[in-house]
Design goal:
This protein is mainly alpha-helical. About 70% of the residues lie in helices and about 0% in strands. Helix 2 packs parallel to helix 6, helix 3 runs antiparallel to helix 4 and helix 5 runs antiparallel to helix 6. It starts with a helix and ends with a helix.
Amino acid sequence: MIYSILSIAAIIFAVLFLLTLTLLHLLKPEYDPKWRMISEYEIGKYGSLMQGAFFAWAASLLLMMIAAWRFVGSVGGIIGWVWFLIIVLALVGAGVFKTNAITDNSTSRDHTIHTLCGSIVILTFPIASTLVANSLLRSPFWEPYTLAVFNFTLLNWLGMIGFFGSIIWSRKKDPSAGRVGPKVLLGWPNRIMVLLYNVWVIVLAVCVIQMMK
């Protein structure tokens, strides 16, 4: 029963993150989603909503990892599980420490910490999800959900590759695009990537709920 409750809570927080992100897209149209990162929603008016969204994402991931712990048996799975705890802390850090605008080249402690936290999430979420998924699928309880877990874990990798691919493609298309800016079209890939990361959590939570019936 407790695992179902934790999984339901994980889904609620993941959906809350996605709904908040959608709302901010409407509330802050000045941040063009074609080339602005989601972290920039923390800046200025309604910034607290984006901070809360990061906290909701952290809560959903933490609750899901607690619910899935009983099925994580391999060394690789334990490493992935522990690494997800680090990602949870990184998400909290991303919420606490605000980033600078992508057009702002100045440095600050908050921006540096936020960038570090964001890099941990973006770069390592697919690795941790692969380690955990591989361990879960060794359990006979997860056999009916093999295809779903495999496919959505693969989508995590495709989301990350698509994000960095959009940066490479933009710069190749226009060498004058610079490191970031209106010509580096990373905005939508950034949003799709975080959507896929959260959907992975939701899929695992649904699997646990089904198992507990």
